[in-house]
Write a structure and sequence with these properties.
17% of the residues lie in helices and 35% in strands. By secondary structure, the chain is α+β, with helices and mostly antiparallel strands. It has a single domain, classed as Alpha-Beta Barrel (Multidrug-efflux Transporter 1 Regulator Bmrr, Chain A), CATH 3.20.80. An eight-stranded antiparallel β-sheet has the order 1-6-8-7-3-4-2-5, with helices on one face.
Length: 155
């Protein structure tokens, strides 16, 4: 497991909050894609795409599953009927781990960061959610070819 320590600048994003069952996340992703296409504010070919996991890996019930689907933007977005709002991914140090393949197995790497890597270091987790940067598009590449960077905020 290759982990890099990186310092991230704050990233202004447009975000759609998903507060529902994990199985319904795809519906929120489709809603965000529709906003992205209609608004033109965060073109997928020009701006980065993120996911922000406000829930702990073990908290995957409808009552606790909280995930933001995000696209990088240059300026604040206008109020809209999709429920997409302005947010910011905070600046700071992060452990970065690359995941290749299906997003169905990404929790294995997130859990490995929590349970295996972090206790064996002098690092401490910062009070900020883990976030993901999706480096390619699941629509245009096979699931086995997906590349996602996992960012684990550190103090």
């Amino acid at each position: 497991m290759k982990i890099d320590i990186v310092t991230m600048k704050a990233i202004k994003v447009a975000a759609l909050e998903h507060l529902d069952e994990p199985e319904k996340l795809q519906q929120s992703i489709e809603r965000f894609r529709a906003w992205r296409e209609e608004s033109g504010c965060s073109p997928v070919t020009e701006k980065r795409t993120f996911g922000v996991a406000h829930s702990e890996p073990e908290s995957r019930t409808v009552q606790t599953f909280h995930f933001d689907i995000c696209g990088e933007v240059d300026a604040d977005i206008a109020e809209n009927g999709y429920g997409v709002v302005n947010r910011e991914i905070p600046a700071g140090r992060c452990a970065r781990l690359r995941h290749k393949g299906s997003l169905e197995t990404i929790n294995l790497k997130v859990n490995a960061l929590y349970r295996n890597w972090l206790p064996g270091t002098d690092e401490c987790r910062r009070d900020a959610p883990i976030f993901f940067e999706y480096l390619n598009d699941g629509v245009s590449v096979a699931e086995s070819e997906l590349i996602t960077d996992i960012y684990f905020p550190l103090r």
